[in-house]
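User: Round two. Same drill as before: sequence, then structure, for each protein.

Assistant: Same drill it is. First protein:
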Amino acid sequence: MFHGAERFFMSERLIIYQMDFHLLSRLQVHVLTSNKFYLKTLLFFQYGENVIKTDFILLIMDHHQHQFWWRFFPKKELTQVYISTALRYFGVSLMGIFFPLYLHVEQGYSLQQTILFFIFYSAFFGASTPLAAKFCSKYGLKHSIVLSVPLYLVFILLIYLLPVLKTPLPIIAAFLALSLAFYWMGLHLVFHHASDRIHRGEEFGKREGISILSKMVAPLIGGFLIQFFGFKVVFVLVSLFLFASALFLFISKEDYIKYHFSFRSLIEREHWQYPLVFISRGMRVMADGVLWPLFIFVILDNYLALGFVGFLLSGLSALLVIVIGKISDHYDRRKIIQWVTGFESLSWFLRAFVSTTGQIMGVTIFGGITYGAMESPVGALEYDLANRNKVAAYFVSREVFLCIGRILLLSFVLLINNVAGGFILNGFTNLLVLLL
């Protein structure tokens, strides 16, 4: 018999306080600290004439050590994911839009060397993705996300010391790739587990929209700090936000998945068209994250102005990602994609021909609208395609083909020695998303 004077029986739906109940069966016990005792398990207990079976957490505290701060933490796992990704996006985006320029402008690497860095990064990313999935299966999804933090901080440290140590770029690229491989594999699996198919458009839209809003002012702040204080301040802030984002991951329980790597699992015959979609999506990542900042900086020639472009793009995209995400749960997502894809391709064709600040602003507004309208339906469909029995293998395949797309686009730009040509190629390959 447990007497509940100082015992709290908690779950999302039921709180039993100052009541007597008989615990009939307990399958597992965890002791977390010296003054807090948790039972986290499937419990069978009797209250009155009723026997209740459920999965609860039993927390026993000392009378003088009540701590109510835990009530203010979000209990819903999706909310925890939203907060964690928002903090991370803000931190990383403080310098993300400027990193290609840091190599090319600040450190004096040629355009070819800068592009080669991202080719190395993409190759390491693809190769380490199966390793990240295996880590998730053994140690847990959220531990994979946490492991990505020190890996990313090593990357930041190497970048900061680059003027002194001159670390080879492939080594730096490897740490960045490992960090993001472990982060995205963990995040994809956590989000797939926490979201549901019926509301996935809205949930994906919220995740992306909240993340975009959290980084909305980050490019502007990053541009200001870099312009007047240098990269050192930005490096410190990025580190702080990465650690803060990790704090929200273990409020809820850890999850595990089964995964066994095989080359055959990279492509399923019945899903032959999806690798083409992922390749086109990978191309867009590099066009937007690497080629576009390099291209427009030549015109703007100012970090602060570049930060303002990122601010403008984020505001438009965030609003539409959230709104269209909710709409896509009630309408055919593929129909929405068909309506928007042509305009998205047109936005990339137009980017190849901008030459003034006004044109950059105009095409940024247009691109923000098309991206915001397209991202939620496409993202939700990508998660819907994951078979629950092969979810890890699916995301490994997705990430590998994304990396192939990144490498193909950057290699094409190197081959023709023309960044604008990469925008035109991306505009054409963007049409492959219609295969979803």
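Second protein:
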Amino acid sequence: MESVSEGKPHHILLVDDEDQVRDALSRLMRRSGLRVTSAASGEEALRLLAGDEEYDVLLTDLVMPGMGGLDLIRESNALAPELIKVVLTGHGSRDDAVSALRLGAHDFLTKPILDTHRLSTTLARAAEIGRLRRENAQHREQLVQRARELERTVRELAEANTVIKRHSDQMEQDLVTAARIQRHLLPHHLPTTAGFRFAARFLPSERVSGDFYQVLALDPGHLLLLMADVAGHGVSAAMLTVFLSQSIEAALAESADLSGQPGALLAWLNQHLASLHSEQAPFITALCGHLDCISGWLALASAGHAPPLLHRSATGVADPVDIEGVGLGLLPDSTYDEVVIDMAPGDRLLMFTDGLLEATSPKGEMFGPKRLAAALAEAPEDIESAADHLCEQATGFAGERGLEDDLCLLLAQRLEK
């Protein structure tokens, strides 16, 4: 399989039996910077798919003479399983569109195409998903090849069983992680408590994200807060966020006491990370907290992560919490001290990844901790509006340059009594 090539225009295979439709759609897509190959029938499309050319998206009409769109999707699923399919509806019924989605179609567009922006964004988004699938498939092929090499080593060197088992376990973990990389890891809904409100924002850059946050309800009065940032970008960093999420679940399942001890939880994660990556462990920064929603007491521990900001309602000042620690994956026996803060009614705590601080202006200046503290101090009272305000301040500071790193934040506010 050829490697995924960055920077090349997305290649669309357009299938429609109407010449005018094919010509019109081809012109629209080429104006959007897409590369287009067209076919007048499902049979012709299958011949093209069987050739050496690589396609990112199959865009097909549903109702055509001979092989229809549904049959084409079935055949192409076997011939090119990683190819993203988008269907054109109009002559076909809504039931046909639903059937296509059940067969694995990614999306559908309704003819006539009047919204060229929706056409280009739908196809571009589908093409990116297809390229990520091929990239994951490449990783799987490489891992399978490594497995074969290890099997030969087992036959030749019986005394290497322990080493081979470690590598086999690592490969199995990589396979599972690669298969789940595109799943959403972030909470869809933040917990609602009697004493606190939460808001979160996640603005990924063009790269696959290595940022991660979690808010877990431990019982009606206590929450576990986590913010993490995996070193690097791309698929490998995203894979490690899956690993981190699974590790937290494993830690809490092994010992419920860890949920109330953020320092001990970070130490467990660090040792777990080191034990699974004995040769070269990945580097992750993390900030972990245990919140008592009734009393307002918050215990925090840091593994090399940017310190959170605490905004005191009584003074109107936002200052960083004095907390530090060694990043996960550096030293297997690291321990993590905890600091405890008392959040008074109206106080806010901001946890974030370094993408918020490193938003860079067109002049090359970084947003930095002082600007962030000022933005938090002047943020609106409504917590959702406050989270929007922080993002707007960072993105506005970056201007046309845009964010060069993922931006992730979690804002917690104790309610007035």
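Residues 1-5, 175-183 have pLDDT under 50 and may be disordered.

User: Perfect.
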